[in-house]
Amino acid sequence: MADKYRLMRCRECGLPRFVNHFIGWNDNGTITQYLRKDFRVVMQHYSFINGLFSRIGSQIGISIDHIAFEAQRNSSKAVFEALYDKIPGMRFASRFRFVKRSTVAQFNKVAAVTGMGYSETLEYVPGKYGVARFRNPFDFNLMAANVVGAFEVLEGVPFKHTWEDEGNGSYVIRVEATGDKPEISERMALEYPRMLPGNRKHERCGRCHAPLALGNLKWVENDGIILDKLSGDRIVMLDGYMIGTVFREMAKELGDDVDDILVDAKSEWVKDHAEQLGMGKIERPLSGEDREKTYRKQLDFLPIYGQGNPVALEISGSALKVIIENPYEPFILAGSVKGLYEIVEGREGRVSWERVREGVVAYTVDPA
């Protein structure tokens, strides 16, 4: 296959230039778009995010895929609307068909660069429909939502989609303009919490200024994936709002018990993937300096992944307390801290958390 998406890379650290021009790693534990400093991006392990909503839906006995679809559709629209709002003349230029075709090509590139999957346009008739093929989608339902949202921004009208599974991880999707828009879509509006400033300094490339810790990642753009070279796990770049929006809507319908499901899902994932997270197998509970060092090493990944800024760590007897500024999704982070505690301490834990003030959450884990 031709290298359709061969990326220009920094000659010093190897990071794709498109990535470093599209998003930025900040000193407050967040990753944000350059065009929208209030719009967060996070990095997630594919093995956690893939099929997450299907697994949760099976636990509660109802499908939530349609809720996830609408949340992701709105997130996709917010991403691409930033281009129209921030680039002078973009809305006017997009009236022309050749500009629309060029924009659709950029949709494909964004999918590959963010590790969401490889996509190629098979057919596109501006104002009417588009047909594309996906390979290696991180989650087909959410990938389809991204495409629908992007086309709605481009064309200015609601779209619907149909799809065909070709097998071997390949799908063909067709999107068509329609006058109908699901009522639930209006309820899934994104919320943008205020982000606090921070003073966490990343060690950065002298040429492109990207964090050097990203050197552990490998972009395989013609497969549409990002790989962690140390663990071999796949990494995906996502917006920082979709999961929280889904669980906000679920809580309205099912109550706060759904929050525990997300906490447990993340904590179990952390324990099952200790080796991929660089902890390996801990034969005995750690103590003293090794104990604190392990906690700090794992928490230092949060800012690199845009999930928050850990500003305090306190170990008191058998209890752990972590304070995180700008937490990405409080329930996911609660699960992360709980899972980490259970690996290091070698015992079951019980996590609780409180909002200290806006943008700051304190997590405490005690023996269960």
Please provide a brief summary of the model.
The chain has helices spanning 17-22, 46-49, 52-60, 65-86, 90-93, 97-113, 140-155, 183-187, 242-254, 257-272, 288-299, 301-304, 330-345; strands at 23-25, 31-33, 40-45, 118-125, 129-135, 159-167, 170-177, 217-220, 225-228, 234-239, 309-316, 319-325, 349-357, 360-367. The protein has 368 residues and is an alpha+beta fold.
What does this entry look like structurally?
The protein is an alpha+beta fold and 368 residues long. It contains 13 helices and 14 strands. A six-stranded antiparallel β-sheet has the order 1-2-3-10-9-8. The longest helix has 22 residues, at 65-86. The termini are far apart. The mean pLDDT is 87.
